[in-house]
Amino acid sequence: MADKNQLFLGSFVHSKTLGELEYLHNTAVCVDRAGRIVAIEKDCDEKARAALLSRLEWKDSEVEVVSAREGQFFFPGFVDTHLHASQYPNVGIFGSSTLLDWLNTYTFPLEASLSDPAKARRVYTRVIRRTLSHGTTCAAYYATIDVASTTLLAELCVSHGQRALVGRVCMDTGSPVNYRDASPEAALAAARESIAQIQDLDKDMVLVRPIITPRFAPACSADLLRQLGLLAAETGLPVQTHVSENKDEIALVKKLFPRKNTGAGDDSYTAVYDAFGLLTSRTILAHGVHLTDDEAALIARRGAKVSHCPCSNSALASGAARVRWLVTEKDIVCGLGTDMSGGYSPSVLEAARQAVLVSRHVAIGAGGEEKDKLSVEEALFLATRGGACVVGLEDKVGGFEVGMEWDAQLVGLGRVGDEAGEEEEGGDDDDGNVDLFGWESWPERIAKWVYNGDDRNTKKVWVRGRLVHERK
Amino acid sequence: MADKNQLFLGSFVHSKTLGELEYLHNTAVCVDRAGRIVAIEKDCDEKARAALLSRLEWKDSEVEVVSAREGQFFFPGFVDTHLHASQYPNVGIFGSSTLLDWLNTYTFPLEASLSDPAKARRVYTRVIRRTLSHGTTCAAYYATIDVASTTLLAELCVSHGQRALVGRVCMDTGSPVNYRDASPEAALAAARESIAQIQDLDKDMVLVRPIITPRFAPACSADLLRQLGLLAAETGLPVQTHVSENKDEIALVKKLFPRKNTGAGDDSYTAVYDAFGLLTSRTILAHGVHLTDDEAALIARRGAKVSHCPCSNSALASGAARVRWLVTEKDIVCGLGTDMSGGYSPSVLEAARQAVLVSRHVAIGAGGEEKDKLSVEEALFLATRGGACVVGLEDKVGGFEVGMEWDAQLVGLGRVGDEAGEEEEGGDDDDGNVDLFGWESWPERIAKWVYNGDDRNTKKVWVRGRLVHERK
């Protein structure tokens, strides 16, 4: 909670539709002590501002004013719809491995080691601080199978003020014996315990909520998947898992879960989750690189969501997900995920940039189809509104609307001085690699930010009105 | 020139072969006043260091000692083998355009405007400072058709201390009338004038040299190409141009230069340059995305070089160049190019990262072929030794060897503190997004640098022993 009511002044940019950003200049956004947006006033001069405060019955002394400088703008906080907090120390380390050998070589040993609480605290603190500094105001985290350190992750999110879904990983097969649940029953008991501990931390689920997390079908027995499906139905909690990331993985699922055993509607990977009650409107499916037309239709029918993770899919050579096809032709809600450490970067802005680039590889593969190409605006929609919908918070975050909460970042871009380009004007800190020469339109500034921006451009970050990161 | 002899101490990392980095720890590298490496001493303790200085007859008072801190390392400066200095203000701005419409919409108008000397100074100064800050010690620049401002670019390279090949762009067709040479003769005269002015600046071509620059076949008449081929033979100067970037471009070349007119060996794009004497061992061909087997064989026979520009090829949806095939199967020397502003980033490290990722898209397209995947080590080879060979400086730069010149960067990576990950140790400035936890091997540290590093990790940059950039 913020100490005071807050009045944000300046330029605001957010997604209006998938393909269109709205630019609100000289605008005032009023945020109450509870972090809720209570008024938005466009073209707000001194007089209009006074009238606005009077209408809200806010006294000047009770209002903290935060002004964006010329050229800066407020943008909604990013939603990272898929990442493994526990894998953060491995970012960038994968050699030439692909999914299944990468899990065994790099991932499982690191995750297992995080049952050490000191190590877990060090890693989880770092990943929260790092992602906040990149403007990630909400994250859907996988932790590990360890209940205590999963709760610690949730605690650290609360103390650092990051909105999060935190999942204790369930897996009773397909991994080393020292890093798996002993049985479906043991997994279910641990899942329940983790849910209880996380709910206990934040009873109204204001900032942090638990999420049911079957790792992925190859790491779960049919019994476990069935019980987690029942748990999802019983609790109404969200679910996160992986689907159709890699071709060997898909073949493995087909072998492990033959249709005759599961009673699934067809032979597909997606149908396995559906057979066990895990494909719900509150389900986040990471990747979906190789989804068939039928699978996409099934996902759309169930209202499940997809987290697109382009950095990871390229780095592990999983494939190029047809995200624009999923969104525009199959009507599936998609967001972006950094998928650390399959993905190498903590930045959702980097995920947006790679989403744009990977969509061009999809287009190239399809003979240059324009309809496969994601625009900068569309990638930013996925990073904000799309992601908010993926995590079930579309009424609260992802844009600037009265009634929504103030999850936002203040973005500043560098300006090249007139004096022979030697000096920058007006910047009192390092503005990174975005160089504005002064003649760029607002859409061009946004494109420059998406292509060359980094955490240096994210000056301040708020969640529910609370300032949770500020660049020094 | 440096004021003093210099002694660099610490860890040094450079490419030994395409696939292998050499790690030299506790090593001393001696650089004389002329910027040349005169001795390299491994495992150099105090006593060995004293003996070394005595052998070189260097008095202590005449030696400046530069020590890498624990965890920092010296790395060869990067060579950017292809970029358009004149397009720098447009980085990140391309919408969903592809090559030919992008040129007309974004590129030609900006380039034409740089005949204004004040604007050219502002832009060129910025691009030199920006690329130096990313560790680019040598760049193969395209300027514009304007002779005076092309010379200004060369002057600014000299004054900022960046090694460069600077090309005045020749083009007498296929662009707006206000931005093309009036005739082949006018183009040739301007090319000769530009060469003379640049050579006059730096008579021994120590730092800067001119490069013959036919923009690309579709922007040049057959007459102009022929005359530039003769100029290359007459002067022995290097040549740079574009080849086989985009399928529409390839079709256009086929239409513009039918074999019966050029007398080329076959119908290919590459054969057009060959027919005009422009395919030499000193030729840098940018892109080569869609080269056929025969074209690659022709390039190899002529000893021409390829500049791989993955950022640009993805952003403009040109395609995914099979760079590992070019290097390992066709024996073509390749380097990396940022290709601003077809490419969005000033960073060769970003080009290396994208080269690794794009190579995975090549592998995906080929059904998951391991042999298409570039490793981190291979990408760094292309960024240094490969690039040096592309620009004809392989005896001078690209690695640490006695007799070579000291073009280098000092790299520092961030460390996560033990105290709950809250604090970083030992860093007195911002180390960017690379987080070392302390247990990483040296190859893992390098991988983390390639995947998450940026200009914040490049602490100092030297060219020919002169300190040309230092992070504040």
TrEMBL record, chains A, B:
Keyword tags: Hydrolase, Metal-binding, Zinc
UniProt GO BP: guanine catabolic process
GO molecular function: guanine deaminase activity; zinc ion binding
Pathway as given in its UniProt record: Purine metabolism; guanine degradation; xanthine from guanine: step 1/1
Pfam families to which the protein is assigned, alphabetical: Amidohydro_1 (PF01979)
UniProt enzyme class: hydrolase
Alphabetized Gene3D superfamilies for the sequence: Metal-dependent hydrolases, Urease, subunit C, domain 1
Reaction it catalyzes: guanine + H2O + H(+) = xanthine + NH4(+)
InterPro entries attached to this UniProt entry: Amidohydro-rel (IPR006680), Metal-dep_hydrolase_composite (IPR011059), Metal_Hydrolase (IPR032466), Metallo-dep_hydrolases (IPR051607)
EC number(s) stated in the UniProt entry for this protein: 3.5.4.3
Ranges where the Amidohydrolase-related domain occurs: 75-468
UniProt xrefs under SUPFAM superfamilies: Metallo-dependent hydrolases
Domain of life from the UniProt record: Eukaryota
One Gene Ontology cellular component annotation held by this UniProt entry: cytosol
Cofactor(s) this protein cannot do without: Zn(2+)
Function: Catalyzes the hydrolytic deamination of guanine, producing xanthine and ammonia.
Family, per entry: Belongs to the metallo-dependent hydrolases superfamily. ATZ/TRZ family.
Protein name (database record): Probable guanine deaminase
